[in-house]
Amino acid sequence: MLAAVSSTAPGYEGLGGYFLGGQKRGAPPASVPGAGTTFKSPRLPTTPGATVPGAPTPIPTSSQKPTQNTNVRIPYARCMFTSPLDDAAPRDLQRGDVVFAHRQSLAMGRGANRLVKCTGLPQLNEMLQRGGTSDGNGDRSGCLDLRVRAVRERVKAARIRHYEGELARAERDVDDLARRVQTPALRDASARAALALFSARGRLEEAKQFDPAVDMPEPAATDYDFAADAAAVPLLRDWTLDGVLINVDDDVLDVETPHDARNDGLLLNVAIAGPTPLRNAARTVGAAYSNQLLPRNGWTPQVVDDTPMALDCIVALLVGEPVMLNAGDDPSNLNRPRYYRFHWQLGSLRQWYNITAGGNGGGFGAGLSRDDVARNWGAYRIGCVTDRNLVAEPDEDRQLMLNVTVEWLGPEPLLRRADAEAAELVQALVNDAARNARRQQRRRLPPGPVPDAPDGGGPIDGARGQLLNTTLASLERGVAHERLPHAASVNLLR
Hints:
Largest sheet: 10 strands, antiparallel
Number of helices: 11
Helix content: 25-40%
Shape: globular
Strand content: 15-25%
Number of domains: 4
Number of strands: 10
Structural class: alpha+beta
Order of helices and strands: HHEEEHEHHHEEHEEHHEEHH
Radius of gyration: 27 Å
């Protein structure tokens, strides 16, 4: 890919024109162009009936682009070969599905000609399900069991790699803050950065002292590191979230060309950034037809949120389910031996807010549940909702417009992000309630169930106000009351 960017073909522009608009790189303009400034038009200079001029040279392959430099969807082509017996089942992916890419499998070629292996979330969950049982001796690809020495060796490497990154990040934050003029807010930030630096050094030293040769016949919850150990599970380490599927080009659809079905070529156009439709399938019995699933597709329809909200954050939550070694043990007892199985769950932070306020979230098959939130090992932030209903009929091929920005968040960063966004959401609801009440008063209508907020910023009265006050109180507690110090944010439901 670097060679494709740096080299140019004779008669064609390079990729530099994408950002420079065909202009030469130079000093920035001294002022904003005035109204009389003319810009180079991509249209050829001609009039009706005149001879069409020749093509410009070099051919403007990058400067005359159909989009602006901002708010642009960035696609990436994922090419692979597949067969009907492929466990990854990439052919069953639908437009708008979340796509995972393998780090190594079929990794042949370079740049745009590189072959990869892709799969969807339900297919990956099926692979995790099949590889998620452990007998304490064999090394399985879909679970985390510290009784197995090979797992302990991978765990040590994963912890060292994770906390070396945390240490480098904390050192960079401390240095950046030290060079700035100190204000009360920056002094608080510097103190937090110094604390993070001290914690990262201690955790890194603990990771280096971890000895895989020491047997752990009964590993408890506190023996696992929920921020780092997931990277020791092969199926979680190798499959990373790539983006959202735009469309598919499948050789099997070309019925006019004879070919061997065992080596069908498949091209997935995946949006790795920018606004992209995300499928939000219905849960009804007829959802398979309504959401245009292939007849042979037996995977669960992709359900994100039944009642999505604009500006909400969509996540793929990594859920670790404890498997108790002794039948009848209570998973909430952190001292009882266990190992962990995993699955991915799509949902929204709106459901997280609902759970922290005492609700049950989205429920099974419709987003995050209380157990999902309590047992999370981190999440991929997929993007932000900019349009919650892209279709005229809600039950037909439901989609969300998502500004894709893939980012991994560990358990603690995820908790901080969710609490911060929850506070902003509740404040927006309070402001909404105040505007609605004032609108009712201006229309001389009797006050509805949502009264105006007091000028002093105190509690809000009424049924809706009681709900908002309860939500605010719950958000202040967050799910921190379920988490214990250290042991990588262990909580009571782990």
